[in-house]
Automatic annotation (TrEMBL):
InterPro entries named among the record's database cross-references: Antitoxin_Phd/YefM (IPR006442), YefM-like_sf (IPR036165)
Chain's role: Antitoxin component of a type II toxin-antitoxin (TA) system.
Homology family: Belongs to the phD/YefM antitoxin family.
Protein name, UniProt field: Antitoxin
Superkingdom, taxonomy of origin: Bacteria
Amino acid sequence: MKVMTATEASRSFATVLDEAEHGETIVVTRGGKQIAVIGPAPTAPGRMVKAFLARRAGTLDADFEADVAAAREAIDDEMRGTWPDA
């Protein structure tokens, strides 16, 4: 874990993002106090939700299943495929 001041993070934000992309966690401080943590984004949330719903198929109440179906229908074709599944 790397620690840097807000000023340092501001001046080298592209580098901070590159480091986070490569697995580094950066703690940002201001006045000696931690104010933020920048790190890699979690992966596979789409896959985890999909797996959960597959395991629970047929066991969820009808209202929940209808809500999920309605939400899927609400996503237009342009947006499909933009959410990571891996």
